Amino acid sequence: MQEGSLLAAVDLGSNSFRLEIARYAHGQLQRVQYLKETVRQGAGLDEQRRLTPEALQRGWDCLARFAERLRGFAPGQVRAVATQTLREARNSEVFTTRGSAILGFPIAVVSGPEEARLIYQGVAHLLPASDERRLVLDIGGRSTELILGQRFTAQAVASQRVGSVSWSGRYFADGALTQAAFAAAEVAAKAVFAEVLAQFPRGSWDQAYGSSGTVGAVGEILAAMGQPAGLITRAALDELLDKLLRAGHVERIRLDALKDDRRPVIGGGLAVLRAVMDALGMEHLQVAQGALRQGALYDLLAREQPAIDLRGQAVAAQVARFGADAAQAARVAQTAGQLLAQVAPRGAQAGQTLHWAAQLHEIGACIAHSGYHRHGAYILEHTDAAGFTQSELARLALLVRAHRGKLRKLELDWDDADVILPLACLRLAVALCHARRDPDLGGLRLAHKGQRLALHLRATWAQAHPQSAHLLREECGDWQRTPWSLELVEQ
Q1: In the beta sheet, which residues pair with residue 10?
Q2: How does residue 479 score in pLDDT terms, banded at 50, 70 and 90?
């Protein structure tokens, strides 16, 4: 990363959309601009868990305004992440497809654990260096993330479907703030958090921090009430609850630091905060400065340094976890990469994805050798791997599933060369490495024109490797049944 470079993160939360722009200077990120808009997409889910047309349009309108500020940024300088509402929405692809076009950059829906990891990175990078054990809490619009970690490493993460927007809609829908409503909301939230209490036992952290959203808003309100700035205690929350109960309705709340966009969801947010502090036995909580968007920015920096890119580490962990043959995985990855470099020399991202898919292509064999490609794809579709978005895992799963078997049975976008070329290279690499030893690549050259692929062989190659040549001819036959073609050319 060059000194003075700009980076941007777009956080598509359930209550608000945020844009953070920072400049890289002296190894750190310095804020240049911060924009926030209350979009309330989380309140726009209908009974079928689909975003309403109005909710879709609110989001797209906001992204259009962000896009104006992001003009001139390169793809590697921007990361846009969407969280719980778009994880839940059945029509999330409708929003992200058009939203990505409007924004000018791809929108990635991240899993709950990945959201938690990014939150922790954001908080940890804005705290003083310390060996303290940290618990980080983030109450968003439709989910709450809990993370235990030390320095920059998250050691335990959890994401629960409890948030200020969803709980306000469920228990304070009419705006009334009653003792009964708060009691019901807190009991329900505690029941959800009970599922993860074993991951966060009392005494497993030295200091608890709260990030963004509800915690930040409550911290400001408590400071305006005369409490120590940046500190939230259970006693102070009791005092705030008493003020809300005396108001009786969100429209009658009179608190100096309560912003209008937070007013409709303060009831649900406070109930969730009280519940989680009580469930975990937290007496006090420090308001932190970092959040998801800062974590996304630092993750962009890490992706420029392969040695610390968590995605590579996550792939290696999956290979080890499922007992895949690491030597064969590396062999296939190297062969596939060499082939791809011949047909897509500038496809850096496609090459990285292909490399990971090749390393992971046999992880499903831990379930059964028969259909192991389908088992491997299932694992990737249902796993949480640090650093990966759901769309990235879906692309890996597609390549793993499609690396063997009949091509005509697969639902592929045959017009997308960024999918088809890496897939062809992976399938060829698996065939060439079938003997589980380094293949003879001397004189082999892959070429393509349009949707026609040709694998050039030296004149004596097929005679020297009859089984490999047989597998390659079968592969050619399979491609003839698709819109693409593959032929062997013996020179």
Answers
A1: 19, 80
A2: very high
Which residues lie closer than 8 Å to 421 by C-beta, 6 or more apart? 340, 343, 344, 347, 350, 448
Residue 276 CB-half CA count within 13 A: 33
CA 270 to each of CA 61, 123, 216, 259, 264: distance values in angstroms, whole numbers, following the listed order: 30, 21, 11, 14, 12
- All CATH 3.30.420.40 domain ranges of the chain, comma separated, are 6-109+295-300
- Whether 307 shows a pLDDT value over 80: the answer reads no
Q: In what order do the strands lie in the sheet with 133-139?
A: 153-160, 144-150, 133-139, 207-211, 284-288, 231-233
Average pLDDT of the chain to the nearest whole number: 92
At residue 33, the pLDDT reads: 94
Question: What is the bridge-based pairing of β-strands 485-490 and 445-449?
Answer: unpaired
pTM: 0.72
Mean pLDDT, residues 205-209 taken together: 95
Task: Mention every residue, 6+ apart, whose C-beta is less than 8 A from residue 236.
Answer: 222, 225, 227
For residue 32, count other CB atoms closer than 10 A to its CB.
12
Residue 238 burial by Cβ neighbours in a 10 Å radius (0-12, 13-18, 19+): exposed
Q: Which CATH superfamily is domain 309-439 in?
A: Hypothetical protein af1432 (1.10.3210.10)
| CA–CA distance, 66 with 104 (Å, rounded to integer) | 10
CATH class of 6-109+295-300: alpha beta
Q: How many Å apart are CA 408 and CA 478, to the nearest integer?
A: 8
Decide which of 3.30.420.150, 1.25.40.10, 3.40.47.10, 3.40.228.10 is the CATH code for 127-288: 3.30.420.150
What phi, psi does 253 have (nearest 5°)?
-70, 130
pLDDT at site 305: 67
- Rounded Cα gap, residues 60 and 162, in angstroms: 25
Distances (CA, A) of 157 to 111, 138, 196: 11, 11, 9
The residue with tokens 């698996």 is 430
Element holding 392 (H helix, E strand): helix 390-402
